[in-house]
Amino acid sequence: MATDDSILKLGYLAGATRLRRIGEQLQTQGDRLYAESGIQFKASWFATYHTLLQAGNPLTIQEIAASIGFTHITVKNVTRELEQHGIVKIKPNPTDARSKHVSLTTKGQNLLGKLNPLWQKISRSLQDLLITGHPDFINIVSRIEKEMDNFPLYKRIHDETPEQANILDYHPDLKKYFYELAGKWLLDVLDGTLEPEDEFTLRNPDESYIKNGGFLFFAKIGSKIIGCVALKRLDSVKFEFCKLYINPEYRKSGIATQLIGRCITRCMENNATELWLQTTDRVKNAHQLYYKLGFEEAAPPKEMEVLQRTDKTMRINFKQNMQ
Fold first, then answer.
1. Distance CA 77, CA 88 (A)
2. According to the model, what pLDDT value does residue 323 have?
3. Which residues, given as ranges, of the chain have pLDDT below 70?
């Protein structure tokens, strides 16, 4: 792309335009790869074809569109092209005369044998390409998609935008908030008695985490610090997040997800393979969030100092997720 591109000068105003042209370039290059491989397929067919493949049974246009997040007309046009090439068949829906059933033909099913080897190469190359933007690119896109679902652009313009939390890296002025937030919460959870590990880390987060290659993050809304989390380094490729706390007034607003998301992103930036956590059954509500974010129960690694209050340990295996 030319360095004097006028679109670049428009900043966020041209955000959708730049995402679209990236998508168009990838589709054009994908079509070239299919043609050079002698496969009668188009990049724009991928989402619809793959959805039908995974379903294993006929789907309506509406069901396909809902599954992949495309418009009805886009999916309708793609299915017509697939039908013209003998990859799908379209028949009346026996239970609803207003819609039709779409399913793969034998030719469409057999096409997978040719597509899979090429898809594996494309997947590896796309990973190499996209992580040049950021190592956590896929999760960043997921967060943008979720935010668009929760609060679309048109509502942001017409309605009052809710005050957003900024996630800050540690600096000395923030040190006192770590104990004020996480310390008071833990005292309540532990009936007024902190474990020895807590006593030191809560009052000396810089020495406990930063000095040992870890990180501290704080959530700020306006001028108020309302949340915190520590990212503890266990070894060169493993981290543990701990002391996650959100002011009760701001819970259920996605701030815990933001703080954990920052931990995941920082892990990816540091080529980590695993992110761990310890939790207690006293905060079972948090367990639902951990599972949703991809954490799974697992035996603790030898590098982890398991606390007396810990009822379970969980982890995300980044290496496994990328396979």
1. 13
2. 53
3. 1-4, 160-162, 321-323
The topology under which CATH files domain 6-130 is Arc Repressor Mutant, subunit A (1.10.10)
Dist. CA 220–CA 262, nearest whole Å: 14
Backbone phi and psi for residue 4, each to the nearest 5 degrees, phi listed first? -95, 15
Angle (CA) 101-103-108 rounded to 5° is 155
Structure tokens at 12: 């966020």
Q: Per-residue DSSP letters for 205-231?
A: HIIIIITTT-EEEEEEETTEEEEEEEE
Identify the pLDDT of residue 102. Answer: 95
Three-state SS at 279: strand
Q: Would you list the domain boundaries of the chain?
A: 6-130, 134-161, 163-321
pLDDT in tens, 179-188: 999 988 888 8
Rounded distance, CA 313 to CA 317, Å?
A: 13
The topology under which CATH files domain 163-321 is Aminopeptidase (3.40.630)
Name every residue whose Cβ is closer than 8 Å to that of residue 246 and which is 6 or more positions away in sequence. 219, 226, 227, 255, 256, 259
Give the closest residue to 316 by CA, choosing from 263, 280, 270, 269. 263
Question: Which one, of 149, 141, 134, 78, lies nearest residue 108 by Cα?
Answer: 78
